[in-house]
TrEMBL record:
Protein name: Bacillithiol system redox-active protein YtxJ
Gene name, Swiss-Prot/TrEMBL: ytxJ
Domain of life from the UniProt record: Bacteria
Natural source organism: Chryseobacterium panacisoli
Source taxonomy: Bacteria, Pseudomonadati, Bacteroidota, Flavobacteriia, Flavobacteriales
Gene3D superfamilies referenced in this protein's UniProt entry, alphabetically: Glutaredoxin (3.40.30.10)
Pfam family, any one: BrxC
NCBIfam families: B_thiol_YtxJ (TIGR04019)
Keywords recorded for this protein, A-Z: Plasmid
């Protein structure tokens, strides 16, 4: 990884294998996540791997999750690699696409969403 990739985020950047992330890499993964929302409230974090702001928000959110004793079901979507899935989320839930973005889903329906610095663990556990 080059110096600039470390500062601004590399093209192949993914979360640092945090154990709490469940990845969405296909429409089937999205369907499973939505099905999971009928058992537990879930959140989908849409992340742009080429954006410094998105990387910063992601890191801050990960720290919040790691420092919390609240169990959460969080899904990670690399929206550049899986643009069609990101577009499907925006269309199906009628939520304008933003990046970074956190969409909270319960019983198959969005109950909260936030973008940029408004993203916080409190959107999921409140």
């Amino acid at each position: 990884m080059s110096f600039f990739d470390k500062i601004f985020g590399g093209k192949n950047e993914t979360p640092d294998q945090k154990t709490f992330w469940k990845k969405i890499e296909s429409e089937e993964d999205l369907t499973k996540a939505i099905e999971d929302s009928f058992q537990n409230r879930i959140a989908i974090f849409k992340h742009s791997t080429s954006c410094f702001i998105s990387r910063t928000v992601l890191k801050n959110f990960e720290k919040e999750v790691e420092n919390s004793d609240q169990p959460v079901n969080v899904y990670y979507l690399d929206l550049l690699a899986y643009r069609s899935v990101s577009n499907k989320i925006a269309a199906d839930f009628e939520i304008r696409h933003e990046s970074p973005q956190l969409i909270v889903i319960e019983n198959g329906k969005p109950v909260n969403n936030a973008s940029h610095q408004d993203i916080s663990l409190s959107q999921i556990v409140s």
